[in-house]
Amino acid sequence: NMAYDINNIFAKILRGEVPCEVINEDEHTLSFADINPQAPVHILVIPKGAFTDWSDFVSRANPEEIVAFTKAISRVADLTGISETGYRVISNVGVDSHQEVPHLHMHVLGGTAIGPLVTVKG
Ligand code: AMP
Predict the structure, then answer these.
(1) Ligand 1 center–CA 104 separation, angstroms
(2) Model's pTM, two decimal places?
(3) Residue 1: pLDDT above 70?
């Protein structure tokens, strides 16, 4: 398991040290536009707590944080208008996934037909 790095870019966004385009915010979550969008709509949903990835979050977050995070994902889909047309939710965990930022984030992608899930094969 990775240690949480308090100087990762999303920690800086949460502290207001780095700007972002906010889509939604509540007590436990922040959602903002991805700086390098891979689809017409590409939002990142993050918990405000210091969690490295999904596994870390599920093992340490309290139920209120888990509910808030889960709901925030569909909330941003509603806010950006992609609930009707469809969207994909992806979270990279650890080395094999190519996770680059060590603060849990869900990618919410949509706004066009985005094709098959992944290109790697078993
Ligand atoms: P991952 O590879 O799953 O860790 O995804 C990290 C994502 O964070 C990438 O899609 C980046 O484009 C995005 N990203 C990195 N820095 C920023 C930033 N300052 N603001 C918004 N998105 C960012």
Answers:
(1) 11
(2) 0.97
(3) no
98 lines ligand 1 (CB under 6 A): yes
The residue whose CA is least distant from atom 12 of ligand 1 is 36
Cα 57 to Cα 49: distance, rounded to the nearest angstrom: 9
Q: How many CB atoms lie within 10 A of CB 114?
A: 16
C-alpha–C-alpha distance, residues 65 and 11, integer Å: 17
Q: Determine the average pLDDT of the residues in 18-43.
A: 98
Chain segment 78-96, per-residue pLDDT in tens: 999 999 999 999 999 999 9
| Alpha helices by DSSP H, 21-62 | 54-60
Q: Annotated catalytic sites, by residue?
A: 105
Token readout for 70 is 């889960």
Which one-letter amino acid corresponds to residue 62?
N
86 CA → ligand 1 middle, Å: 22
Phi then psi for residue 61, to 5 deg, are -70, 150
Under DSSP, is residue 23 helix (H, G, I), strand (E, B) or coil?
strand
pLDDT-based confidence at 21, cuts 50/70/90? very high
